[in-house]
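Hallway conversation turned thread

IA: we were arguing at lunch whether anyone had actually written out MFS transporter end to end. Turns out nobody had. So, for the record, here is the sequence (478 residues) and right after it the structure tokens. Reply here if something looks off.
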Amino acid sequence: MEGSRSRLLKFKTYFSYAVGQIQDGIPYNFINYYLLLFMTDMAGLNPAVAGTILFIAVIWDGITDPAVGYISDNLRGGRGKRRPFILGAAIPVLLCMLLLFAPFELPEWLKFPYYLVATLLFWTSYTCYSIPFNSFGAEIVTDTNERNNMKTICGFFLYFGVWLATAGPQFIQSITAGMGISEKTTWFYAALFMGLIGTLAAFLCWFMTKGVEKTQIKEELPENRRGLGEAIKNVYASYKLLLKTKSVRIICLMALVYNTFFAVKATGFVYLMANNLTLDSAMQALFWTIAAVLNYAVLPVLNLIANKLSKKTTFILMWALMIAFALIFAVVQISSFAVLVGYQVIFAFANVCFWVIGYSLAYDCVEVVEFQHGENKSGGIVGLFTLCQKVGYAIGGWMAGAGLTIIGYDAAVEVQSGKVLIGINTLMTAVPAVILLIGLILMIRFPINRIKHRKLLAALERKKKGEEYSTEGFEDIF
């Protein structure tokens, strides 16, 4: 009876937290998949210029990640370190999405600065939500398999957000097609609709997790934490310290590589459906719905594999499979809707692996750092992890924009040349495969596994109690 009650309470906690994953999933994927397309085809920006905007903005966002992580780790005041950010960042994220997809026409000289500033504001507000939210998850549970279970529940909400972000615009366009509403205005309605759902999810997460987060009473800051200059020094010192840990370095580099892969492939997906396969909005919406179903089907399978084998082994298997099939499709060419769905099946395993199990691996690094330095730095670790994601996305976005320019993509023409179509196919198959191979090599070198982590937790507990402990069997994770 007690076991059943404990499992129910655990599920309730995981569920309350996981609802907030919708707000993490919608903005990130909506921007990743469609902002470049909107800027080139709706706003009239050159693809290379639009790619440069994404690169600059996300690099800026990467700079703010460590700052938000540091502030979140050190916030005091009795209301938690993470939940105040979850509540406070929700509305700004919505407003920035509306600014980016606003339907008004801009003069040519204003387009670059406008979209650059709007994108900078978006990523800053998104960071203020995403890093504290994901850091919160590391504090809810410490067992490595339970972290898999919690992130799997999160995955169901995450991929609901992904489905809305990808299929939502196409559904809305199919509805408004006969209403005389411009395509540009339809994108604004899509941003409004999905942004409101994400905001509601953030509010629900904040409300339902009341009492879950351990709060710290407000206290006077030590001398070395006063003033902007000292704060910047402390942020730098904190991240320099984190990067001395081998497991943290590898997981962060892996995140950078994966998101470079993701950005290039995501761009290729959107352009391939519109140009190579000439799918209308209804068929594109159908594809994204199928993709969402595949993600849901993959979630429990990967969770089972990761719990039975290991997270690291699961990564290696899934990414090796993705690389092999991407290279096959580079030769075969994605020439039909059915082939595209087949490619998405393989991608679902690789993608879910990163977004669910990848965060669980990052959480495992929290205890490594705590053992070394005596402090829980989950905000710092998640900040570094997401910084590398966004640097990777910036690199991938720039590569995608530059790639489209190199292959001769022209948004003004109705039908692209055969050379351009082959280039688009290459952009979502062969190029991402080469990038992901680097990530696979990094993952092979990742030192933490289930046995080592459990030994670490036991040693950490003894260390906290002032008892004797040993690092035998897990010394290489540092």
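OS: looked through it. The two ends are 41 Å apart (CA to CA).
IA: good, adding that to the notes. Residues 337-373 form the longest helix (37 residues).
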